[in-house]
Each structure stands twice: as structure tokens, then as C-alpha cells.
Write a structure and sequence with these properties.
Helix content: over 70%
Shape: globular
Largest sheet: none
Distance between the termini: 33 Å
Number of helices: 20
Order of helices and strands: HHHHHHHHHHHHHHHHHHHH
Radius of gyration: 21 Å
Length: 415
């Protein structure tokens, strides 16, 4: 017979695995925004500028989302607001495409509004899920891998169907039922408490909510060094994904195969998340986090030599493994080195780095592609990533005084 604690752990893992799968299924559909904007008739520089302007808007409000979440002690509530708004706004893209055609100002405005909600959603979800699972001793990677599975399934189906079975614009309408299902799953809570099951640490969390202090983040050297390193880790999700149709075209592939390629990549993320959770039990997280920088750097350098779909698939091995380590262990590493009362703000600060990469990368990336080609962009990104990886490794010597809580993540290998 399973103990009450084991039953609660199973319920929590099932719930948050479903949340992850549904969230990234939504993101798999949203990934087709570049393909849609290309079909409408916008150029690479226009698309890059749209995403950059949207990201600036998201950057301005992102700290606000984190502070609201920490002050209300409700990462779940703020996450649900942001992801629901994101799904609903993306579902209007086809409508605006038919109504205004190539009227750029309308799409600049629409993308700006979308990114106000899209940018903080992932980090708020990370904060919510990790805060619920870590006191139970459950590694984040064990549920985060189902996000990659959900993304992979939807992305592969879209890669096969879009343009052949269904129209591109039809896929955006599926976001509404996805968002509704995500709301239902997220809000479901069976009446039981972790404390009733004998789990340590929950009593302190419920009885004492410490005050928010921004200085706890500004003086945290390990966090600052990681956030600098994160500029390189987020180049794929902030720049490469946006211009991936151009990478495929330069490699003699059909841009509509973006779903097939990234779906395959997501399957490899699952493998990396599983392996990363095992490695982190024996190796300090900061050392495991070196791997994604090396792998992402190699990925971007190898695009120079890609000339067919097989080459792209091989490169996705590096990219998928790097992504799996980054997306599952990165938030856990941040959660480990910062105090709990500023956890959501730290996670949205991490998302701000992604936004900064998006702003700079997309604004410059579109013009670089137009002037010199997409391979100049990807090679340059590879060099930057590898340089920042060297910086992260060199920072270990100055970060001997570890900030944050002791023993927050059981079995992480950090201490």
C-alpha cells in the first residue's frame, strides 16, 4: 500500500506533467507565427522588428509580473492570466491577416500586446511548479520532460499536416480549447495537504511568508553570473527559432518542415532532461549547466555546413540535448541559489535575459540575414555562446560564497 505522501507525490507529478504538456502544446502552435507572417508577405527584417518591438514591451512589464507574483504568493494565478491571454491573442492572427493584409502597423501593435503576456508565462510556470515539487523532493526535470513531449507531438503533427491536411491559419484556432483545458488542469486541487503526508518544510512555507526584498537578488553573485551566461543559452529560443524557416531554406529544406524538425528536437530534450536529473544527483548543478553552452555553441557553428534535411536532423541532436539541460535544470539552479521570497522575481529576471536576447537578436538578425545571409547570423551566435560558456566556467572561482537556501533541492548534488 502506498503511503499518503506517495499518493500526493503521484498526484502532483501527474498534474504538473499535464500542465507542462499543455503549455508547450500551445507554444508549438505559436511557433508558426514567423511562417504565418511570411505568408502574409512581410520580409525578414520586418518580422524581426515586430518580434523585437514586442519583446521590448514584454521586457518593460516582466519585472512587474514577478513582483506581483511574489507579493501575492501566487505564481499559479499570474501564470494562468499570462498564458490564457497569450493563447487568445494568437488565435486572432488569422483574423487580422484577412482584415488588414500587409498593414504592418497593425501587426506591430498586435505582436507588442501578445508579448506583454507571452514573455513572463514560462518563468512564472517554472516558479509555480518548482515551488510545489521541490519540498516533496521531486526533481523538476521529471515533469518538465512532459512539456517537451507535448511540444514534440503537436509540432510533428503540424509539420506533417500544415499545408497538406489543414491550412496554416486553422492551427491558431486550436489554441482556445488548449487554453481552456490548461485552465481546468491547473485549477484542479484535490483536498489534501503535503503537511498531512508528513513532508518537511511545508509548515514553514504556509505559516511564514517572508517579505519581498529586491536586494537579495542584486547582491547574489552566483545569480548575476548565471544570468550573464544565460544570454548565450537563450539564443536558440529567442533568435534561432524565429528565423528557423530561413535556416531550413538555406539548407535546401521546406520551411513548413519546421514543426517536424523541432518536434524531433523536443524528443531529444526529453532524453536530456532525464539524463540531467540523474547527473544532478551526483554532480553539482553548476557543473552540469556547462553542457548546454557547449552544445548550443556547436549547434550554431554546424549550421554553416548543413545542406539537406538529414544534416539539420543531426544538428538537432546537439540542440535538443542542450535545450533539455537548460529548460529543466536552469530554473532549478536559480531556485537553489536565491531565497524563496524572491523566487518568482528571479525567474522572471531570467526571462528578462531571454527578452533582451530577443530584442537585440531579432532586430539585428533580420538585417544580418538580409545583408549577409542566415549562416553569418548562426555562426556569430555560436561564437558568442561559446565565449559566454567560458565566462560561466571562470566565474566559479569568485562564487565560492553560495547565496540562497541550503538543501532546497534534495539530491541536486549542489552541496
Amino acid at each position: 500500500m502506498k503511503s499518503e505522501k506517495q499518493k500526493i507525490i503521484i498526484r502532483k507529478k501527474v498534474k504538473y506533467s499535464a500542465v507542462q504538456a499543455l503549455y508547450f502544446a500551445v507554444f508549438a502552435v505559436a511557433m508558426y507565427q514567423t511562417v504565418f507572417l511570411q505568408e502574409v508577405g512581410f520580409t525578414s527584417s520586418q518580422i524581426g522588428m515586430m518580434v523585437a518591438i514586442g519583446s521590448v514591451c514584454g521586457l518593460v512589464t516582466m519585472p512587474l509580473w514577478g513582483v506581483i507574483s511574489d507579493r501575492l504568493h501566487s505564481a499559479r494565478g499570474t501564470f494562468l492570466v499570462t498564458i490564457t491571454a497569450t493563447a487568445l491573442l494568437y488565435s486572432t492572427l488569422p483574423l487580422f491577416g484577412r482584415m488588414v493584409g500587409k498593414t504592418a502597423i497593425v501587426f506591430y501593435l498586435l505582436m507588442a500586446i501578445i508579448y506583454l503576456f507571452r514573455q513572463p508565462a514560462n518563468s512564472l510556470m517554472d516558479s509555480w511548479c518548482i515551488s510545489e515539487l521541490s519540498p516533496l523532493g521531486v526533481g523538476y526535470g521529471s515533469v518538465r520532460m512532459f512539456g517537451s513531449l507535448g511540444f514534440s507531438v503537436i509540432a510533428i503533427l503540424l509539420g506533417v499536416w500544415v499545408g497538406k491536411v489543414v491550412k496554416l491559419e486553422t492551427t491558431f484556432y486550436t489554441l482556445i480549447p488548449m487554453a481552456l483545458l490548461l485552465l481546468v488542469v491547473s485549477l484542479y486541487d484535490k483536498k489534501s495537504t503535503v503537511n498531512d503526508a508528513g513532508t518537511e518544510g511545508e509548515t514553514e512555507t504556509k505559516e511564514e511568508k517572508k517579505n519581498f526584498q529586491l536586494s537579495l537578488l542584486l547582491t547574489n553573485k552566483p545569480l548575476i553570473c548565471y544570468l550573464i551566461y544565460a544570454f548565450g543559452l537563450y539564443i536558440y529560443s529567442s533568435v534561432t527559432v524565429v528565423f528557423f524557416p530561413y535556416i531550413l531554406t538555406a539548407s535546401n529544406c521546406d520551411p513548413n518542415q519546421v514543426g517536424l524538425v523541432t518536434g524531433f528536437r523536443a524528443l531529444l530534450e526529453i532524453l536530456a532532461m532525464y539524463a540531467g536529473s540523474k547527473m544532478a544527483k551526483k554532480i553539482p548543478l553548476r557543473y552540469v549547466m556547462i553542457l548546454p553552452g557547449v552544445l548550443f555553441g556547436l549547434e550554431n557553428m554546424l549550421y554553416m555546413f548543413a545542406s539537406n534535411l538529414s544534416h539539420i536532423m543531426l544538428i538537432m541532436i546537439f540542440s535538443g540535448l542542450a535545450g533539455g539541460f537548460t529548460y529543466s535544470l536552469g530554473p532549478s539552479y536559480i531556485y537553489e541559489i536565491v531565497p524563496e521570497e524572491v523566487s518568482s522575481t528571479a525567474q522572471t529576471g531570467n526571462a528578462m535575459i531571454m527578452t533582451l536576447v530577443t530584442v537585440v537578436g531579432n532586430a539585428a538578425g533580420g538585417y544580418i540575414i538580409h545583408a549577409w545571409g542566415v549562416r553569418v547570423l548562426t555562426t556569430g551566435c555560436g561564437i558568442i555562446i561559446l565565449a559566454l560558456t567560458v565566462f560561466f566556467v571562470s566565474s566559479f572561482g569568485i562564487n565560492r560564497q553560495r547565496a540562497g537556501r541550503s538543501g532546497v533541492l534534495k539530491g541536486c548534488g549542489q552541496r
